[in-house]
Sequence to fold (205 residues):
Amino acid sequence: MERRGMQTGLLGFIFGRQAGYVRRLAPLYIICVAVFAFSLVVGYGMGESVAPTVLEDLLGAFPDFEEFDVAMIFLFIVFNNVAKTFLFMVLGFLGSFPPLYFSIMNGFILGSFSYSIALEKSLAFTVAAILPHGIIEVPTILLGSAAGMGLGYQLINRLRGRGSIGVEFILALRLFVTRIVPLLLIAAVVEVTLTPFLVVILGFA
Fold:
């Protein structure tokens, strides 16, 4: 007999007792995925017209990785992804728009960046350099955005006299600490280990 509170299926395997909360976020997650995919295509399609300086402004002040060792690169990637995901998740309190904007901008930046790399190297190189860690990193970041949108949605409900924004925040924070951060750590490990190895063995470096 299944123990009370335990979840089954893929969501249960990945998220355990939080599977119910994640399942409730599914509509918001689909929205985040949709706007990310759309902006990804737009960013790639507009890659030729996006000035390098504009892309640099969108990416922010990134350090010169040539001066970093593997450990420093790993720590930077983890801090950058964790901090931004948390920031835009919490900003969902402002009405769900900030995390949605985060999904849009991530898609556009990745699309534009992919175009630049594909133009300089090749599309195959771009896929090999992004897909191994991106397949973990992108869905995880979008999950954080969905949780942020959930906070905004719950705030609207609270203003209508329904639900609890405090409970929703605890659920989002627990998901962030116990699932999102570990998955972003795994993605960063893949990015600094498996991704370079795959690029080399495929003859792209």
